[in-house]
Protein: Lysine 2,3-aminomutase
Amino acid sequence: VRGPSMSAEPGKVKISGVVEIHGREYLMLEMIQGRRPEWVMKPFFAEYDEQALWLDDLVPAFGEPRFFFEDKPQPMLRRLFALK
Structure:
């Protein structure tokens, strides 16, 4: 693996660099090993954040609610939180 990478809960993530899209900066990342085979070699983007230290500190780019490797909320949990 060339470039910085981190071993995180979903797998090993390569930090490919900073890209500019429509005048905004984003981090381009790639899952190089993952808990699921379909995640391997899959690129993804995060909002650029100079303060972020780890994968958990990053926010998905383009208004996405979560990264592809994050578990989706369970319908029952969504209903419980909606009642509050």
